[in-house]
Amino acid sequence: IDAGHGGEDPGAIGKRYRTREKDVTLAIARELYKLVAATPGMKPVMIRDGDYYVGLKKRTDKAERNGADVFVSIHADAVPGRQARGSSVYALSLRGATTVLAKILEDKENAADLIGGADLGEVDNATYKMLVDMAQTMVIDDSIVFGADVLSSLHGIGTVHHTKVQQAGFMVLKSPKIPSILVETAFISNPDEEQKLRNR
Q1: pLDDT at 181
Q2: Which of 72, 101, 154, 164, CA to CA, is 20 to 30 A from 148?
Q3: pLDDT of 46-101, one tens digit each?
Q4: Core vs surface per residue 167-199: b (16+ CB within 10 A) or e
């Protein structure tokens, strides 16, 4: 469970109440932690549990070290103007994942784990890239399915800004192993939604 921003990075700031995104995301992350902890067979891990900044790569590294099955990054959207409203869910775009593929190609040991422990020592680079690309595509596909479930639940409690899972190259979603989503809970730039984000 990744509470976006933190420490010297306040994230977006609401226009009416000057609410800081980093405070909202941490409060939501703590509530999600309680819900997951109360679910049999599930164990939540907080990426940050205080007002401090964690680098984007360190966020996914911590999730991988803890053997995460899914990664959820929590945010509160902001755009110019005050009209935009609703929740959105994002998964990684394959076009945005090219830097991950390049990193994986540099570290064959990690990629071997990714595709089931196969010995890649004798595999040529073209085949190797294809195997890594297939594994990344499967993770993105799982992320989209997971994101659609979350988006459906969000639709049941409020307005959604996008009715389908969106895809983007967010750095925090670039784990090559863990289905990952970024949830924009609401628009902190919308005064009505900012007020709701301040309310437990």
Answers
A1: 97
A2: 101
A3: 999 999 999 999 999 999 999 999 999 999 988 888 999 999 999 998 775 333 43
A4: bebbebbbbbbbbbbbbbbbbbbbeebbebbee
Question: How far apart are the C-alpha atoms of 180 and 174, rounded to whole Å?
Answer: 8
Q: Name, in order, each residue with C-beta under 8 angstroms of 131's C-beta and a sequence gap of 6 or more.
A: 111, 115, 118, 120, 123
- CB-based contact 194:21 (threshold 8 Å): no
**Taking Cα atoms as reference points, which of 9, 13, 18, 96 lies closest to residue 48?**
9
Write down the pLDDT at residue 134: 83
pLDDT number for residue 127 = 83
Residue 47: left if φ>0, alpha if ψ -120 to 50, beta else—which one? alpha
Cβ-based neighbour number of residue 163 at 10 Å: 10
Of all helices (H) and strands (E), which one includes residue 76?
Answer: strand 71-77
Task: Give the C-alpha separation, 185 to 11, whole Å.
Answer: 14
Tokens of 22: 């980093």
Distances (CA, A) of 29 to 50, 73, 122: 11, 9, 44
Low-confidence ranges of the chain (pLDDT < 70): 96-123
Q: Give the residue among 108, 157, 165, 164 at the shortest CA–CA distance from 132.
A: 108
Tell me the residue type at 10.
Answer: P
Predicted confidence at residue 120, as pLDDT, reads: 56
Q: What is the pLDDT of residue 129?
A: 76
